[in-house]
Amino acid sequence: MMFIGGGVGGAGRIGGGGRRPAPGTPDFSLSNSSATTAWGTVSIGDLAPINAPAGVTFRLVDEPAGLAVVNG
Amino acid sequence: MAIRIKTISATDLRPANNVTKRNYTTAITVGGTAGKVVGWWQAAFVRLPGSPNFTSNTVYPLWGHDGNNAGNFNSGQDGVVWIGGDNASQGALRLRPRRTARSGNQNGYAAANQDFTSVSALTANGTDVYLLVYGEQNTGTDASPVWQGWFARVLVGGGVSSQVIATALATAYVTSATGVLLSQIFNSRPATGAARSPVNLAFENFAHVNGDFPWDTANNRPHHDALLALAAGTGAPGALHSYASLIAAQNAGTLGYANLRADAKADLSFYWPMSSLSAGLANSGTGGTNALVQSNWNSLTGGLEDVASFTPAHWTTNPTITEPVVKFHGGRGALPYTASGTYQAGTTAMQRRWVLAGTSTPVSGFDWAAVGTFGGGTWSTTDTLPIGNFDLQVRDTNDVSRAATMSDFLVGTVVLTHGQSGMAGVNENANAPKNVLNIALSAGVQGIFLEGSSTDAGGGSYVKPTPLITRMIGGQTPAGLTQGTLLMMNEWQVHNPGHPLLIANMAIGGTAMADWAANATIGQWTYLGTVGEPGAGSAGGVGRVGHYAWMLRGIADVHAIMWTPNMSSVQATRTAYADAIDARFTVTPASPWLVLPPWRGHRSPPDGSSTPGKRAEHVAFVAERGARGILGPYWPDIVMDGNPIPASTSNPGSLHCAFHSNATLGGSGSSVSDQNQVGQARLGRGIGRSLAWAYDRTIKAHGPRVVAAWFRDGARTVIEIELGRAVRTLNGAGINNQFWVSTDDGATFAKTGFTVALDATATRAVLTSTGGAWPASNVRVDYARAWPFGPADGDLDEALTERKLDGLLYDDQVHRGGVNLAALPGNPLTSANGNGVAVAARGTAKLLATERWTGTRNVTVRMIAADGVTVLREKTLAITGS
To answer: Which chain B residues contact residue A33 at CB under 8 A?
Structure first.
């Protein structure tokens, strides 16, 4: 089961993510989980904070080849 | 060649396995037909020695079997062909044949020996050559066989004579299967005696045939037309023949002779060309492995010796293969290659096969098969070979000894270079001294360097341009090629091991694209011209490009172009140039263009070569090629500077980016330059790697990419740039800034007024203004916009300048060159005007795919608090690419 863009306190869970946080716990969602890739840059989806304070940023862990976050 | 007796009583030739007699009444399959009741025949071309070697009052055994090993050939299993000595005492047998025919102690004829005294006498003079043929065969039918023995001799180029013994062979002999028909050629075993093979007795082309000779039913004799065809005798009708082609035509029913017994069939079971003591001793017939071996009986040396061939020309003339100008076929294993050649009279069919070079291992799918076209004295074969190194073999289908080979043919990738000295200097032969770095080609390298001998067809007076071809093989250290070429080849080899590459250097120093596109005159010909080979006295309309298209048979798999400073600024001219190339390389009209930006051939500002405008022309050239355009790398390792400009300055540079003009090596450049490595060699390496990358984009790109840029916040004092991968400097050096910022929408750029740092993940560059806020609009960023270093910056010694390169940004690749900037979205070179990437207001955070990949992968994303440290949430997400 997959939710995309869950509401406040919702799942916002994509793929094999961690456990669903308790209501009010900072979380984020990804609006889409697939893309037709190319040798250029292709947007996969938006990263949206949930229950998060202002000024949060996003980073990828371990520099996965072929993926990047912008505006995060 | 042929083989003769050099020393008597020394050496003879013996098949590894005796050729034994059959019960000839037993039907067998022969000539592809079952139920045949047949005999056999043997033949050889023989030259008898002159006086005094053949004049004894004796009969000389030529070949056969001596069961007693005593040299007297009188055992109960012996089969022997003799010739009476050139001595009056021989009477009717003088210089005529005798046959001993025994099997199971049964005589084939009325006595142990049968003399053929009706055959015209031979001549023993060391000059005349005869085809001698002896046979015992069925002259009746399969159902009612009649067994007769016969002998024939044909003077090569002369007349024929034969005799058939009218009385049928004895039945007990015919049915016996213990006799031996051949165990030796020559008779050298006896240490003494008159019957030993004399000095200068010579043989060539020996055959043992299982089956019946073409038979003349009207004259009841071996067909003289067939005999004449073998020996090119006087009045030989129709096609001349070898044993194999005669038998093939006989079995096929195509001989066409008058009064020919229609159902006679045969197999060429054993055929030894006896070309020399080192060739033609293996059995080329259908009877299996059975090579002739030299047998030395009396511990004497020098028993046999090679002599010039004496069979008719149609026996010794092989088919030919017309070799191409360049034995390299582009197309990367996907384009057909047509080979052709000639064949000689008597050949009725031909076969070809491709083998791995230097072996007899057929290429899968390309073993012996009929050639594609055959007729009128020429043949051709068209094959789409895989990538590799091969030999082409062709042969007469019916006489496999008539064969030819073209060796060392390569199939792979052809890269054609375009531009002026920055490109030409990497490879060109004129760039002497060469390979001063003593570069060795890596193991496994297979390639060719190709160049026309003259760029201007002689300049002041015409000199025909010719191909200069240098083969490149792994392990070699060629002194005749530049280190640029050799390193380019080695870099290609890293990513395409064993894949042959042909580097064709077409670029000409000091020339402008506009002149090429206009087909202007250069020296004694033109830049483009027609496709063909230049004439002996004039180019005849052929031009530089046309010459290359001719040499490469219209194939250029990839065009590599670096053209500074004279790349055209006019789109129509650029298009005309590319179209003119395609119009001549007609086999590959859709080949990619790998475009290398001009900073690779660096000169310091204000030289035009170093400007963004020159870069923009190259980028535009890429864009104009559409899907065929590939933008080559940003490669910051070139510290060699093309200054001096002008030459009267302090001369800090090394004169030319692609030359090795070090003053200590005879050039006129800087004495502190290490340009041999930094200039030409680095260019060669970079081009080679770029070329490999163009075909295999799994090679990871290097260095940072400007994926996107945005203001961190509304204050606009910080610009964040996503680089697409973690980067670092080398050797702990501080960042040597190569980021540039424009505040007028790309009209001008500067790399001052801000500091540069990497964020904690090293995947993002952070530019922090040292002044006020940047404007809200018209701000753009670029990377490596112009060369940051060089002698003009104060480092005269380029080897020291190189240390500044440690401060550039690299990813974790060992190789410090880079292939980075495809002409695709997300790169600073993607815009046609080379104006970098716009800095936007920070928008919604997005996850991007930055390169081509497929499948599902898990990516871990962290949401970090504004303090930049606290991880508020971390999740692993499954992302699917297609």
So the answer is: 877-880
